[in-house]
């Protein structure tokens, strides 16, 4: 996970591509809290039905490709991602088979038992082994491709991307497929 200064730097660098929010200023309050002032962009959050729009899908792919290829001057603390994978797989194991989650699903009338029982941790390890074996490309990954972090411009200018990517606090260098898969996984949630 990036600290606030690194996140601001990454946001500023990405903002210069035209696919993110321009960063005007980074500041520190009296209590030491770091903040950032971004340019207002007239947008709304991505909705599942937006993914059917070929232009939006293309712009998300372009936005991710530009983010993944960012050249930044600081070294990520996480390094090769092994810490990320360990935390991810341990977290997934914790929730596998969770009776509490099944109860929540049952209260909403949605049966999610198969999803909760699925061994995602083992699948993630298999995916990582496969990506390693394929010498898959790595880049900066957002790791938080939920709909609230993909904004759709209300009135894009001619030739301007319809989308804006935001919220880079979980960004680390990793296999690009994690963001791409994360985006498509979000298609099933609302």
Briefly summarize what is shown.
The chain is an alpha+beta fold. The protein has 7 helices and 7 strands; from the N terminus they run αβββαααααββββα. It has helices at residues 4-15, 54-68, 82-95, 99-108, 113-117, 120-133, 177-186, and strands at 23-28, 34-38, 43-45, 138-141, 150-153, 163-165, 172-175.
Describe, in plain words, how this protein is organized in 3D.
With about 190 residues, this protein is α+β, with helices and mostly antiparallel strands. The protein has a single domain, classed as Aminoglycoside phosphotransferase (APH), C-terminal lobe (Aminoglycoside 3'-phosphotransferase, Chain: A, domain 2, Alpha-Beta Complex). About 40% of the residues lie in helices and about 15% in strands. The chain is built from seven helices and seven strands. The chain has helices spanning about 5-15, 55-70, 80-95, 100-110, 115, 120-135, 175-185, and strands spanning about 25-30, 35-40, 45, 140, 150-155, 165, 170-175. A hairpin with a 5-residue loop joins strand 1 (about 25-30) and strand 2. Helix 3 (about 80-95) packs antiparallel against helix 6. The model has no long low-confidence stretch (mean pLDDT about 85).
Annotated CATH homologous superfamily: Aminoglycoside phosphotransferase (APH), C-terminal lobe
Distance between the termini: 25 Å
What's the total helix number? Answer: 7
- What is the CATH architecture term? Alpha-Beta Complex
- Structural Rg: 18 Å
Number of domains: 1
**Uncertain segments:** none
Counting helices, strands and paired strands, the structural category is alpha+beta
Query: Which sheet architecture does the biggest sheet show?
Result: 3 strands, antiparallel
- Identify the strand order in the major beta sheet: 3-5-6
- Helicity level: 40-55%
Order of helices and strands: HEEEHHHHHEEEEH
Number of strands: 7
The first-level CATH class name: Alpha Beta
